[in-house]
Predict the 3D structure of the following.
Amino acid sequence: MIVFKETCVGCGRCQPYCPAGAIYFEDCRSVVDQDRCYECGTCLRSGVCPVDALREPPNVYEYPRALRKYFSDPTSTHAVTGIQGRGTEESKTNDVTLRIGPGEVGIAIEIGRPTLGMGLRDIQKITRALARNGINDIEPNNPINSMILDPLTGDLKPELLDERVLSAIIEMQVRRERLPEILQTIRQVIPELDSVFTLDVATLLEPGLTIPAGILAAIEDQGFSWRPNAKINMGFGRVSE
Ligand code: SF4
Ligand code: SF4
């Protein structure tokens, strides 16, 4: 985002709307720190500016800056996935799609939420740790995949490393027995991260609505606490072929 200095009257109303704390005063006008701004569009969509001084910069859709908007603005359509949002389609409709099937778990690492934001270097810290441990199971349609330069090392394309986004999500789908090794790898990389993250583990319930054996123990063994979460759009999914 940018502020038209000639138009801005310095009222400061836009500043509390920025979750990144990227808007500040300079010479009695508001200015956007272009490094901190992750192009979420919240300030603009708020409609709070009385003189229409907030504008998207000309390079907002230019690679690599465009990733900021694709990952951070919920109204934008991601150029890689063709859908809105940071992850893959139908990830919240497993009740219908059975994308995570019997004997499998879905794992998602959501970095940067709530609203703290993150640098893409944090993604690389995780993809490198996974690659070092021989884990190369990121969902093919997840946009993170298109950012990886070398799957064997987990290195991201170097031009992306200084970009910031509101949040990103690494999604995996693996056999249940691999859950402990993946959680252990995630646990080991936590001290390196500069942002917050949420870890999701998704599974089908078994008859009697019980959680399959071993899943909660694997989570607790790595020192994570857990709570059940219905992050699904019940009944809105499309049946998989
Ligand atoms: S687009 Fe988002 S991050 Fe950038 S200045 Fe506006 S509210 Fe802040
Ligand atoms: S709301 Fe508009 S006029 Fe007020 S400080 Fe922000 S950009 Fe300037």
User: Anything to note?
Assistant: DSSP finds six helices and eleven strands in the chain. The mean pLDDT is 89. The chain has two domains: 1-58, 82-221.
